[in-house]
Amino acid sequence: MSVRITRTGTEVVLDHNELANKGKRTHAEIDSYLHELDDAREDKPSLKDKFRELKEKDDEQDRQLDAVKSDVSTFQTRLNTLSSTVSAAEAKNQTQDLRLSQVEQKNAQQDQAILKLQGDVSSNPNAEVVAARRDRDGRSFPSLKARLDDMQGKIGGGGGGNNGGASSSSFDLQTPINILLNTFRDAETHNRPAYRQNNMYVDVFSDSSGIDIEKSSSFGIINGAVLPGLHDTNIIMSSPTEPAPYHVTSSSETSGYPGWMGINGNLTDFYYSDGATPPAEGHWWQIDFFVPKIITKLAIRAVGISAGQYGLATFTLQGSQDNTNWTDLYAGSHANTGSELEHRFTNTSAYRYYRLAKLRSYRSVNPVIYTGWHEIKFYEIIDAVTLVTKAVNVGRSPKKIITTAEYTDAVTFDLTLDGTTWVNNIDLNKLLDTSSLKGTNLQLRANIPATGSLKSLGFTWYDDSMLVEMPGKEGGGGDHSSTKPLVDVVAATNILRNAYRTLEGANQGASVRHNLYADAFVDTSGIDTSKSESYQIGNGKFIKSTGAVYSWQTLGVQTASSVGDYNDKNTAYRPFKANGTTSNYSVEKIADDNAAVSSGGYSDYWLQSGTSADLFMKWATPVKVSKIILWMNGSYGVDHNYCDHQIFVKNPSTGKWEAITPRINLASKTDKGVHGDGSWHYPIILDYLINEVKVTVWNKSGYMTVTEVQILQASDKNPVMVSKPIPLAKAPTHLLLDAEFEGNVSIDLSFDGGNTFTTGFPLNQLVDLSTFLPGNSLVIRANLSDKAVLNSIGCIWYDKDTLPTYTDTVGGSSPGKGNSMIQVEKYGVIASPVSPLEVNINIPYTSNYKLSPIEVLKFASGEQNFTLEIASFSNNEASNFDHDNYMELDGTLRLKTDYSIELTEDVVLPSGNCVYSFTLDVNQYSSIEKIKVT
User: What pTM did the predictor assign?
Assistant: First the structure.
């Protein structure tokens, strides 16, 4: 900065001309003076240099001053904008105050109306004050008396019946109900069996896995609905005892065509008796249903061997309760055809065991020794259903439970926490107080009448740690206001769980959407492969990787085939033999430590004809196995094909075969699998060591082939999952982490790209990150134990601008003594903390996370109310939302006021004029102001 001083006064100062004329000097004198000046100045700058330096400093300071002026101008502009925003907010607050005053006035009027209605109802309690009305779809609304009772429950805090006095005005009911309903749709879309997410359980009856079969009566599941009537028992066997608890036996069966193949859902397989001498009355085939069933219909597709002479001709159906004493139920004659034929008969008794006895074929000689069928179906009659869900362990006794269901007719529901004490006829879609019940195993019982059905069932439970309370008034004066985070941890967790299901259904890798990250391990796209350790991904699971391949020769393997091989029909076990020492196509080929598959090669694989075969491998010392690889060579010859297959291991403690894969049905006989090399890889997790493996293969055309079966050791290191860095727009202030896993898993977090980790980060809690090292590059690290499985992982984060908060304006509150939060879903209405008015909107499930336009107002007792907007919308976003033609999106969500109705030409008058009419359902309109013809 330069300082300039201007001299003031009355003295006369000589001008430069007068000063210059004081005398004249020669050049020599001037040069001498200059030399003296230079000598005196030595290395100091000249006056000219000093002036130049001062001038440069002055220019620089001018530039800095200009920059400061520019910043001041910018700040002034922002200040003007902020002032305008504040003015708009003040105007909006005044409008809201006016609207709130209007609503309070309206509430006062409603209170007067309620008092009057109470008097009317009290004078005639059996009368309906106003008849029920219908909506545009013909559905009936409850009468005013019923709505009055419901309103009193919501406003006054008194629940009725079996609700335990729960107050819907102090708890957000609709959000968990909507989450359950949306989860129903998600489960239906992905055909999911019954499953649990955090504190929520749902079942859409895609199968019977969620039903306690022992405690339930007989039931049928048709197209995802449980209902009475005549139903196919839908038994699909994969072995004589699988799936449990069913069991198929027979007096005789041909090798390769066992009894269970007559009821395995595959029309190319069949059951076939082996020609052995039958019992006195003939061969028989039977099934143990485990629970008694009333069977009144059979459907049979007989075999057509030798032009049908081996097909089923006659049989007798018998029933038994003890597998010893049998009752004849039906004597059937079956036409000699390969088509499915039905047999209907009368039966009113339920039997556990059913037997087709006295089997006869169409053979003219010895018809009793050979016969069979491709497939048989049993149909049972069900009058009414008592359905009991399997017990869901909820961890600790829940204080509150919300149950919802989709059903027809008068289905009732009961609830228990200990399997013994039942609360009968519970209310759905209400907050049930279960604090007086003891137990942690939650079960529901649905009582379905003969004309009813049950489509879906679900519940959400809450213990003390899940019930979020808002601060309330306590003693003491002064303003102790503070801002606190307001996040529904349960709802946020369920959002993450639904995101996992969406990724699984879309077969999509890790996803980042706004402030949400989710990975269901469909692939490795979200994993930092350079930093993760000892892992493999299979079937949406992050698990421990495999080690080396076991040597069959070292294990001392023995192999066998249920149908032998192409050159040797012997089914006995055979010792290990190396490749080159066995004949072509022998069963020893499947375990000879040679997995090479050469295109067109034929010397190193097992080959056999027929419809199916079981291939066995066993060895002396049980070992730990982490993966099984099946190799096939279908590239040689036109009929040497790849096979449908399923893999089993024998549990040494039970002695039973356990399936580790479902039946894998290939797309075609030339399908080489996802690896494209004729190999199929199956990671497995077992709690026990094994020394027996079985591979079942099914023919897709001419011949079945298997090149090699490999079993792999587990890695000696535990797996570690490290995510790729997740970019964050701003440093987060709070974060909620979630994971689905089995076994022991600990999770660490880094916010600086993986350089510094905070270990042992808690799950399903809103964590304040103020004590963490700040950063905007999030990395998640999961440390798995030896047998742990990580199914999915995700998080939601908030920064200072996105974190919803509330202001505690009344100070000191202690847990459990505050007033619970009131949440009201807004649909063109206003609500107050005193008398909430609720109108609910169902949020449709969409795979791209679009939500319907909905605004949520949240109120808490105190001096100030607060508003949290979770979604906004404008008229140009209308196409993003599903809405009927009664709704309009024009910056607000509201009912339409103008409707266009097409006219119908009824008759043409002699004058040439026409008479038009239109149909108007007055029940759809509360009032009509004008009708205009255009």
Answer: 0.39
